[in-house]
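Researcher: Re-running this chain for the archive, since the previous output was lost when a drive failed. Same request as before.
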Amino acid sequence: MGIDKATVLRISRLARIQLDEQGIDSIAKDLDSIINWVEQLNEVNTKGITPMTSVVDVTLPKREDLVTDAASREDLLSNAPDSEEGFFVVPKVIE
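Model: Regenerated structure tokens:
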């Protein structure tokens, strides 16, 4: 592809990165080698290979889904700054 000095300056401006004038040629060379490496990856035949979701084949432990009564209404409403008739009182947000 070929990354030139103008492209590096444009990328640095878009990314809001200030570059030293001496390092621009080095950065252009590094970016060019990275893009060439990615283009080499496009040549790899991946047909029949399932995508990985993790590098480690681990199944997460599962627990039984049980319904429990974590807290009573009175306990929950005791944390509210204001309640009325068993409900939270909140400021009106829609007129």
